[in-house]
Design goal:
Layout: H1 12-20, E1 30-33, E2 36-39, H2 45-61, E3 66-70, E4 86-90, E5 106-113, H3 117-130, E6 135-140, E7 145-153, E8 156-163, E9 168-171, E10 176-179
Parallel strand pairs: 5-6
Antiparallel strand pairs: 1-2, 3-4, 4-5, 6-7, 7-8, 9-10
């Protein structure tokens, strides 16, 4: 006879309450993914430099109706609140002080991937696609390439383009394109 185990998946509201009362470990990098608290990979120096570089670049070229955020939460649904390395959001005068951005506020997300490449492809990609995020970009530190995923459909993106350092990468959310080399370290 098979035993069916019932799981209790945390909601974003549960997760926030846990943080408010101090249940989540202080200083530990975690995020809520599909109702589960997931430890995030430590940030290495090349990862941090790449994120800082992209944030500086995007902030220089962003139109006034966009906000650029780094390593801050976005609420995708009732059970997921990832913290992408970079997010391009619709502008809001309060800069989302009244609440984290929701999926409909997010135009573009970017993850810098070194040791987290498999996780970013197998877990984050389907999560962002299912939430309808228009573009998901992965900077691969090992191969020095950038994969841009667009046209979300279900838990996948219909289009995937790979860019090398010498290529120009379209960033539709910023209404421009950038040299891929400007995003790599």
């Amino acid at each position: 006879m098979a035993v069916t185990l019932v799981q209790h998946l945390l909601t974003v509201e549960d997760y926030h309450k846990m943080g408010e009362v101090g249940i989540l470990p202080e200083g530990k990098r975690v995020e809520l993914i599909a109702g589960k608290i997931i430890n995030m990979s430590p940030i290495g120096s090349s990862h941090a430099a790449c994120v800082d570089n992209i944030l500086a670049l995007f902030n220089r070229i962003a139109p006034e109706d966009r906000l650029i955020r780094g390593q801050n939460p976005i609420i995708l649904d009732d059970h997921s609140e990832p913290e992408p390395d970079v997010a391009v959001l619709r502008y809001r005068a309060d800069r989302y002080a009244s609440g984290h951005p929701k999926a409909e506020d997010v135009l573009f997300v970017l993850e810098v991937s070194g040791s987290s490449l498999a996780y970013d492809e197998e877990v984050k990609l389907p999560l962002y696609a299912a939430a309808g995020i228009p573009a998901y970009c992965m900077v691969n530190l090992k191969d020095n390439t950038i994969a841009l995923h667009t046209i979300p459909e279900g838990e996948q993106y219909k289009k995937r383009e790979l860019f090398a350092a010498e290529d120009r990468l379209p960033v539709g959310a910023l209404r421009t394109e950038v040299k891929a080399s400007d995003m790599l370290v």
